Amino acid sequence: MESLLWIKVIKTAMNAPKPPKIVVIGAGSAIFGLSSLATIMRSPRLRGAELALVDIYEPNLELMTQLAEKMNAEWGAQMRINAYTERTKALPGADFVIVTVQVGQRETVWRLDWEIPFRYGLRQPYAENSGPGAFAHTARNMPLMLDIAKDMERYCPKALYMNFTNPLIRLTWGVQRYSSVPVVGLCHQLEWGYAMVGALFAQHYGYASEVPPNFHVHTDAHNVPITMHMAKRAHEHLDIKAAGINHFSWIYDIREKGTGRDMYPLLRQYFMNYRESFEPLTREMFRIFGLMPTAGDSHMCEYLSVTHDPLTKPWEKYDLKLQNWDMNIERRASRLQQARDIVAGKRDVNELRDVKSEGVPEIIEALTYNDNRYFEQLNLVNRGKIPNLPDDAIVEVPGILSSAGIHGLNVPPLPAGITELCRRELALSSIVVDACVHGDRDLALQALILDPMMNDIDRARAILADFLETFAEFLPQFHGEWSLKTAGERVTA
Predict the structure, then answer these.
(1) 127-165 pLDDT, tens digit each
(2) At CB < 8 A and 24+ separation, what contacts does 255-264 make?
């Protein structure tokens, strides 16, 4: 009997999935790299996995590798860790490729994405995911995103491309449209929706004293901890289902955990009677279109044509704040110093055990070990998931993860007005993708003219010319130095 039991144990071990190989491209990131490493390393179910860290900036790569090795030893992760400055050496045999890259120093180029259109009289509210600045942001990153995809086609064609780089819709769509590798775009923006809901229901669930007097969900670094706390509070009581497009999704269902009670009537009542200064643009859109947006004013404002008029100054009316680039630089430096101190033994590595997960280990676990896991926010090709948006577009929906793959859920049709707002952005994004893949200046000008923030042809021409000159070193496709045919042939990180 005992021998039969051992045979069963041995067979089970033989049939168990092999721990995955995970490649992180952009592993030297002080923000995402540090948190994603910690969540992967702390996962008991990923024990024994192979972890390949890739970054072209060797000092940060070396630091993050030392940090990973320290977590590996302290937390018993039993992982095989290797570091590479050339991704082609890391990719063979990969099961998952996490892409968190930026071309150009993030805060420097993002600031220019905002400042260049401003030189010509156009004041964008945010300049990351839509608006003229998002065109430049897409153009800089697209060649690298596709180089990575083409290398994956060669070295690990079945590996999942997990994109965390903004503009998420456009870059994920580029990989989907112009490569054969499976791709998903990942973002934690729904947490901002939970945070708003958490504040609105604080009195209802008895934690109103935890909400700061002037609470908001602007994305500045110093505001993130309280935003995440409010989100955590909402998760304790409520389940949100949202759909739309990245940074522009809408709550279509909200229910109380345990009872299943529909909480939308209370959500509407609480928001419309909450203090006027709380995410006022989100309230306005909720009131007009009937569903609550999830991204918060800072990101949602990018997709609207009513947020940049120089006469009415909606950024003042709705208190639309720009990204605090200097604060981001300080935050990055602080996180790098934290990593250095942990590696040097001046701080405890267990500080990183509680960092917020971006969903990386959960997705890898579910796909590797067939968890049938529900995931709240996935950016995937539509194919009917939102029935009244284009089939080939990248949309954001909840989904189910298992060894059978990633399957977005079919959701109800969005209301007509919301559908049209999303459709316009997707139509524009499709043109931007093609322009930025092929380096097509005519399409690029069309894209800027079609942008909801643009109201003058000469302004569009001037902005495009400035972008192409200012960012010339990052735009090989517009200067005949890159093509889709040769993507992936170069050995770069």
Answers:
(1) 899 999 999 999 999 999 999 999 999 999 999 999 999
(2) 263/201, 263/238
